[in-house]
Amino acid sequence: MSSTTHTPVQPTNSARSAGRVALFVAAIAMVVGGLTLLAGAGGLTGVDKTQRDDGYLTTDTTRVTAAGYAVASEGLELGGRDEEWVLGRARVRATATDGTPVFIGVARSDDAAAYLENIEHSTVTEIADPSTTFEQHSGGTPTVDPADSDIWITQASGSGTQSIDWSLDKAGRWTVVVMNADGSSDVDIDADAGATVPILHDVTVGLFATGALFVLIGGGVLVGLRVNRPRHATEGELR
After folding, report:
1. Has this prediction a pTM greater than 0.85?
2. Contacts for 195 with CB less than 8 Å, ≥ 6 apart
3. Pairing label, strands 121-126, 89-96
4. Distance CA 218, CA 210 (A)
5. Residue 48 near residue 200, CB atoms below 8 Å
6. Which residues are bridge partners to 52 per DSSP?
7. HEC states along the chain?
8. How many C-beta neighbours within 10 Å does residue 238 have?
9. Of 58, 43, 45, 50, which is closest to residue 89 (Cα–Cα)?
C-alpha cells in the first residue's frame, strides 16, 4: 500500500503580515497604557508631596462663618477597619478669625444632633471658599457649654488653632462640631481637614510597577518585531 506524504501548509505572506500588524498594535497599546499609568503615579506622587501637612493630606484653609452658636459637618458614614486601612487618621483644625477661644469636637451623629437639637446652628452642605453653603437650623442658646458635654470621642478648646485627630476605625456615622468655647453666637473660623491616607503609597507603587511592566513588555515586543522583520517587509506593512 502506498503512503501519501502531506506537506505542511505554510502561512501566506498576507497572514504573517496581518499577525505582525495585530501584535504591533497590541504592543503600542501596552506602551501607551503603561505610560498613562506612570503619569498617574507621578501625579499622585506630586499630590503626596505638595498636599501633606505633618503627615496629613490636607485641604486648603476655608473660612466658615455662621450667625448661630455652632457649625456642624454633615454626617460621615464609616464602615470601620476598611476606612482605617484606606484613610488612616482624620484631622480637623479650626482657628477663630478674631482670636475668640474656639471649641472643636467629634461625636456620633445621633449624639451631636441631640446636643444641637434646640440650639441655633448651621450644617455645612458644601465647602467652597469664599462661598461655603449651609443649612440653617433655628433654636436658642446652648444650655451646656460644649466642652462640658460627654458626647465627644475627642475634643479641643482654647485660643489659637485647635486641632483634633482620631482613627477612622470606628464604624458608624460621625459629626464634627465647631463652636465658640464659651457657647456664644457668631462663629467665624478658618478651618481645614485632612487624613493620613496610608493606602496612597501602595497605590502609587502599584501604578509605577504596573506601568513600567507594560512599557517594558510593549517595548520589547516592538523591538522584537523590528529585529525579526522579513527583509522584504516595508514600513507600510507594519502599520
Report:
1. no
2. 56, 57, 87, 88, 89, 90, 91, 168
3. unpaired
4. 12
5. yes
6. 57
7. CCCCCCCCCCCCHHHHHHHHHHHHHHHHHHHHHHHHHHHHHHHHHHHHHHCEECCEEECCCEEEEECCCCEECCCEEECCHHHHHHHCEEEEEEEECCCCCEEEEEEEHHHHHHHHCCECEEEEEECCCCCCEEEEECCECCCCCHHHCCCEEEEEEECCCEEEEEECCCCEEEEEEEEECCCCCCEEEEEEEEECCCHHHHHHHHHHHHHHHHHHHHHHHHHHHHHCCCCCCCHHHHC
8. 16
9. 58
pLDDT in tens, 33-69: 777 877 876 776 766 666 677 778 888 888 888 889 9
State the cell numbers at 178: 465647631
Return d(Cα 110, Cα 124) in angstroms, integer.
Answer: 17
Q: Compute the distance between CA of residue 52 and CA of residue 39 in angstroms, rounded to an integer.
A: 20
The span from the CA of 63 to the CA of 83, in Å, is: 27
Backbone angles phi, psi at 119, to 5 degrees: -110, 135
Q: β-pairing, 76-78 with 172-180?
A: antiparallel
Sign, Cα dihedral of 54, 59, 65, 70: negative
Amino acid making up residue 64: V
C-alpha cell at 57: 493630606
Reported as a single tens digit per residue, the pLDDT across 182-232 is: 999 999 999 998 887 776 667 777 777 787 777 787 777 777 767 666 555
